[in-house]
Design goal:
The chain is α+β, with helices and mostly antiparallel strands. The protein folds into 3 domains: about 240 residues, Thrombin, subunit H, CATH 2.40.10; about 160 residues, no CATH class; about 55 residues, SH3 type barrels (Roll), CATH 2.30.30.700. The protein is built from 11 helices and 16 strands. The strands form 3 sheets. It has a 6-stranded antiparallel β-barrel with strand order 1-2-3-6-5-4. The chain has a 6-stranded antiparallel β-barrel with strand order 7-8-9-12-11-10. It has a 4-stranded antiparallel beta sheet with strand order 13-14-15-16. Helix 6 packs antiparallel against helix 7, helix 7 packs antiparallel against helix 8 and helix 8 runs antiparallel to helix 9. The protein is globular, with a radius of gyration of 25 Å.
Length: about 500
Amino acid sequence: MGPRVECPRGWRAGLGSWIVLVAGACSAVLAQERQELAQLVAQVDPSVVTIAISEQSLGSGFVVDEQGLVLTNYHVIEGAKEAVVIFPDKSRFKVEGFLSIVPKKDLALLRIQPGTKRLQALRIAEQPPAKGEKVYAFGAPMGLSGSVSDGIVAALRAGEDVRDTLKKLSNRDLYTELLDYDLDAQWIQTTAPISPGNSGGPLVNARGEVVGINTWVNALGQNLNFALSAVHIKPMIASAGATLHPLSALPKPRPERRDGPKGDGKKTLALWNRLNELKAELTKKVAAQDKKFKENSVAVGTGARGIRPKLNKMAAARREQGKAYSDYANEIKALELEGADPDFALFAIAEADLAQRLAVVYQDFGTVIAADAAEGVAVAEHNLRVLGSALTSLRSAQDLLRIALTKRYNMKFPSFEAALKEGGKAASAGAEADAPESVDRAAPRLWTDRTGQFQVRAKYLGSEDGKVQLEKADGTVISVPLDRLSEEDQKFVAAAEKRIE
C-alpha cells in the first residue's frame, strides 16, 4: 500500500452519509446486473457448444441454424479427421462434415444431425456494436457450460490496423506471417477476457445477438482480445451451398499453425529459466524496499514537522524499486532471443515493456513523496493500480505460455514459483520438483486440463466424488472432473487434501 492521503475531518464526515447512499444504490444496480446476466446466460448458453477433436483438443462453437449448422473458428478444426459437438446438457453429436471454410477469416461452418433434439440458433446482429458497448464472451471449455466473461468494445478495427499495431509491439508481421488473416477482415477488440478454450464461441451484446466470434488474444498488451466481426458471418453462411465435405477433406494444417516446435527448444528453456531467475531476484528486491517503505510510512501532504527523514526514506524506497524494475527491463532486453520460440520472444518483449513502465511510475512516486505532494501521490498510486492489473494479466499469460511450451517441446518448463523457491536460481533445465508449489487454498491459481486447451484462474474450494470445486474471480463456482485436470493440478489437489487430514 502507498502512503495515506489525509482528508480534513469535516469533509470526510460529510462524505459519510453520501457513501452510504451510493453504496445502497450500487447494491441495487449490481443485483439488477446479476439478474440480467443470469437471463442472458439462460438465453445464449443452450446454443453454445464444445467441439472435441479426437479427444485431443477442445474449442467452442454455436448453433446458427436449427437444422444442425454450427459455426466455429477454422483453427479449432484445422487438421481434424473427426470431431464431436457437445451441448451443455451433455448430448453429443458427431460432426458430419463442413459446408464451408474460410481460413483467412478463421471461419468454419459445420453440420451435425441433431435427430430429435431441438436446437436453438443464435441471432446474428444486423449492425456492429458501438465502441464502449457492453459485450459478453461465451464458450464451453472442457464441456463447462455457462462460461462467460464480460467487458466492453474497446475498438472496431480493420485487419490492416491490427497488423500495424502488432508490428509496433513485436517488430514482426504477426498478422500475416503467424495468424494468416485477410487485411479486409473486421475485428472487435474487447476487454472481455478470451481464453484459448473459448475460441469459436460467440461474443454477444446485451440482447443476446452475436456481434462477433471469439478468435484470438495477444499477450503483448492489455485488452488485446479479438473477435471476428459478425459482419462476415451472414455472407459466409449464404455462400456456403449445400455440398457436405468430410473433415478428411480439410486442407493440411498450415505450418505456422501447427503446435509443434517453432524454435530451438533447449535455447528457449534456457532463456525461460534465466527470465524466471531475473524475475525472482526482482521480486526480492521490490519486497525488501516495500518493507522499508512501510516501516517509514507517514501521511504525505500534511506539512507536519519532523517527518522529513521518513519522507526521504519512503522516497528512496520507491526510487530503488524503480531502479530494480529498470534493471530488470534492461536485463531482458539484453537476452539473445534469436532462434528462441517466437511466442516466448513476444512474451519477453511484453515483460520488458511493462517493467520499464513500472520503473517510471516508481521513480515518479519517489519524486512526489520527496516533494510532500499528496495529489501527486494519489496519481502515482492510481498508476500503480492500473499497471498492477496489467501485471496480473501478464502473469496469467506466462502460465498459459508455460503450458504451451511444455507441450510443444516435450520439456518441463518450470513455473515462476519454482524459481522463487530456489532463492532466485532457476530450476534445473528440463526438470521441476515433483511436489506442487506450496499449497495455499485461499490463493487463486491457474488450472488446466491434460490437453492445455482449458484454462481458468480460480480458487480451490475442495473435492468430492471425483470432482474439484473451483471459485472464479466473479464468484462463480464450477465443478471439474479431477481426472481431466493436468498432472500438476492433480498433485495440488492431493497435497491440499492431505493437509486437511
